[in-house]
Amino acid sequence: MSIRGEFKIVQDPINGPVKISAPLQKIIDTPEFQRLRYVRQLGMCHLVFPGANHTRFEHSLGTMHLAIMFAESLHVEDEMLLAVAALLHDIGHPPLSHGAEETFQKITGLDHLNAGVRIILGEKPFQESAIPSVIEDAGIKPSDVADVLLFKSRKNRIISRLISGPVDVDELDYLRRDSLYTGVSIGNVDHRRILNVAMLSGDDVFIEEKGLGTMESILIARILMYGSVYFHKTSRIAQIMASKAIWMNRECFRNPFAMTDNEFYSYLSRDEHPISRSILTRNLHKPVLKVEYSKDKMKEINDILSGLKNLEDWQYIVDVIPPLEFSGPGRVKSDMSVLRGGKPVDITEVSPLIRTLKEALENKSIIVSASRDKFDAVSAALGLGQ
User: Fold this and answer.
1) Would you say residue 64 has pLDDT above 90?
2) In whole angstroms, what separates CA 327 from the centre of its chain?
3) Residue 3, pLDDT above cutoff 80
4) Does residue 26 have a pLDDT over 70?
5) 49 assigned to some structural domain
6) 40 in Cβ contact with 96 (< 8 Å)
7) Residues near 104 by Cβ (< 8 Å), separated by ≥ 6?
8) Is pLDDT larger for residue 149 or for residue 344?
9) At 79, which CATH number?
10) DSSP class per residue in 93-154
């Protein structure tokens, strides 16, 4: 089925008028997709950035819009598959977005990607999902969408890379969107310039050498947004406090991928535990200590605090920023090739700036925080103020 034909227009504050064809509108109208209206894009970052109330719903529409723009510019063969996969790439996000995903994965055995794939395929526990039939009505196999999102399709590898790669439509939407709603202007990258310097070769996306400055600007924006927004220490504290509240009440969160942020906060409002009260009133744990990360230092701090009398697990946090799992070229997204003289060259070979930026995210800190009534006890136990 063609992506052209009858369409509706949605006004997007980031991308302007977004055209939505009839087959894609049917996907958007499903209960599973409408749930994303009530899942914030940035989890609990609104406790730090009051404007950060935008949702996975609008981000998914923006990602689809950019996917269609890239399909037209790069002459992607299966435009409808790219549009559908872009639209559904976040369909499995639980409440709080990435904020509590690790805890939900411990409870369910699923992360948001694998939950999303099950929703797309109508597999347990999402047998009632309306998504598979409307995808088929659009002339697309649900299994093809799942394979694209899981990077299992060699034939459609280019579509996978456009949705999740070093230059992808997902990030080009969320950097600009998150920048606007947090008021942090450093994420406002030029997606149109990317369209002008990107090209396909075989089953991958490359950047022409003249676009090197554009790629550097995107990597700078990405790293600064991680430091200023995504890994903001107070946002991390709120997210970890929420994860602790969820884990203490894990029987209530057996299928979080069908829940919304509203349902999560409604649960907190009924929970009498002090950590739930503290989250709702933004009485967050207070930072006590920040030191350079090492395994030995991490063990020393955990040993001290776990052995402290009258200190419960929920009353303190030992965090690492950036998180330990956030490393390598795939996470930093420096695994991009530049076409120099018609041949692909790793971008780090031609850009000292990108090499430096990649190394910057390897510098990690341990941040210890505690509930306000335990701040002095934790501080004393760690030998501060002596």
Assistant:
1) yes
2) 15
3) no
4) yes
5) yes
6) yes
7) 94, 110, 111, 246, 253, 256, 257
8) 149
9) 1.10.3210.10
10) --TTTTTTHHHHHHHHS--HHHHHHHHHHT-TT-TT-SHHHHHHHTT--HHHHHHHHTT--S
Range of 20's domain? 7-232
Query: 349: helix, coil or strand?
Result: helix
Write down the H helix ranges in 313-367: 329-332, 347-350, 352-360
pLDDT per position as a tens digit, 270-329: 999 999 999 999 999 999 999 999 999 999 999 999 999 899 999 999 999 988 877 655
- Which residue matches tokens 């554009």? 214
Q: How many domains does the chain have?
A: 1
* Any domain includes 110: yes
Residue 252 lies in a domain: no
Q: Determine which of 19-28, 177-186, 204-213, 246-255 has the lowest per-residue pLDDT on average.
A: 204-213
Alpha carbons 66 and 163: distance in angstroms, whole number: 10
- Residue 282 CB coordination number (10 Å): 11
Apex 130 CA angle, 38 and 172, nearest 5: 50
Phi, psi of 55 (to 5 degrees): -125, 165
In a domain, 287, yes or no: no
